[in-house]
Amino acid sequence: MIDSSHLTPEALARKMFRWDLLRGFFRGIITSGTQTFGLFIAIRYFNADLFSKSLIGSAPFMGMLFSLFLFHYAALTDLKKSICGSLPMVLSGSFLILAASTHSLWSYTLCIVLGFMLLTAIIPFLTSIYNDNYPADRRGAFFSKAVLVTVLVSIVSGFAGSTLMDRDPDFYRWVLIALGVAGLGKAYAIWNMPSDKIEDHNHTNPFNHMKLVWEDRSFGYVLLTWFIMGFANLWILPLRVDYLTSSTYGIEGSALFVATLITIVPDLMRAFSAPLLAKLFDRINFIVLRMIINIIFALGVGLFFLTKDPYVIGLASALIGIAFGGGRWLLAGSGRVGVGGGHDRHGGDRWFDDRLVASAGRAREGDEQSPGPEPKATHFGTCRMRPSWTTLAISRPSWVNTRPVASPRAPFEAGVCWS
Which of 4, 27, 11, 67 is nearest to 187 (CA)? Predict the structure, then answer.
């Protein structure tokens, strides 16, 4: 673990960047497991029942819910964020390695579920570490490179693991060991990231922030719409693996076939579409772009499950990959920047940043709009808002930024939410 107290902001950012690239490398290996291999192995080698498949498929999302409690109680320990983020990853990697030695469905399911839960439970700690170490005007430039490493490594590891499992059915144990070792490697990278102690949030329970859903109607509205579509999206994620793998549906794809359609194709499209999505994010109304992303999701899901043609399923996977890439940009741009109150060491507000307004949509240069109400501080930033959300969704940009965008990667500059 690094003592960052003597480092200049530039040196701090460079050191953080090196460790984040290593984290992105190991995260790419684990991604192939969470997206494909964990559930594929359960179905193909352990003949998993519906309950086991449901648990494994939902484990990463259960971890996100668990993070609510993990952060709250970790804040009471007065430990550094890098320690709080790395220790769960040590346990995650250990459980994945242990899964390789199991011989029953239930022991395998238990190890995989715990491993995947702990993997996503550390998101709040990483989000805050990024906010502490990267200057706001370069946060996107730094983090986007780590994201690219993650995507490329997940493609390679997905292809390699599935090919080897097709050649030797027993090779799945080595795949699980590789996932576990990657988890330990990610823990090592996070442990060495410069970080401060968790801020004292002075909250009596983990649900204290839920009141913001009612206090800020704008914030609550977007959370509700994301919940509706997000519930459907997360619901079908494990079903896609089951659809391609189980004999029930008549496809029974090989490991390489499943990995290609679940991991490789979506991640490739996510990488290729990122520059376009970044430009759209900075130029299109936030809600309108969210609607477009939802339509792409719906088309992808419909094509995926309504056919057995591998080329049509491949097209559906490509659409889903583009949509997930867009969803990640939206989540990064409008989510909370950190996990505690106050300001970061670069002067940014940890709860929200004015630059988020640019992500929400800005008026075209030269456009004339009525002045509207006085700027209002919301959890998207300081913005002018028309009273009707229906108008916001179907009209030209309704949210006017109060200062120019520092860079075309404004969503990343505001904060990041990946693990």
Answer: 27
What is the rounded (10 degree) CA torsion for 281, 320, 110, 52?
140
The amino acid at 314: G
In what helix (H) or strand (E) does residue 109 lie, and over which residues does it extend?
helix 105-121
The whole-angstrom separation of Cα 50 and Cα 221 is 34
For residue 323, which of 282, 277, 377 has the smallest C-alpha distance? Answer: 277
- Which pLDDT score is estimated for 202? 67
Which H helix or E strand runs over 377?
strand 376-378
Mean pLDDT per block of 10 residues along the chain (419 residues) reads 69 92 95 89 90 89 89 87 95 96 94 95 90 81 83 91 88 95 97 86 74 81 75 77 87 89 89 76 74 86 90 93 72 42 37 35 39 43 31 30 37 40
How many helices (DSSP H) and strands (DSSP E) are in the chain?
Answer: 17, 2
Bridge partner list, 378: 381
pLDDT at 187: 97
CA distance linking residue 281 with residue 410, whole number of Å: 9
- What's the token pair of residue 74? 């970790």
Residues 6+ away with beta carbon under 8 Å from 100: 173, 174, 176, 177, 180
User: What residues contact residue 98 under an 8 Å CB cut-off, 6+ apart?
Assistant: 111, 180
Residue with token string 């950190």: 338
The predicted pLDDT at position 97 comes to 97
Closest CA to 334 of 359, 310, 306, 311: 359
C-alpha atoms less than 13 angstroms from C-alpha of 388 in its C-beta half-sphere: 6
DSSP 204: S
Q: Point out which residues pair with 381 in neighbouring strands.
A: 378
Q: What beta strand segments (E) does 50-90 contain? A: none
Q: Are strands 381-383 and 376-378 parallel, antiparallel or unpaired?
A: antiparallel
Collapsed DSSP state (helix, strand, coil) of residue 80 = strand
Distance of CA 26 to the CA centre of its chain: 15
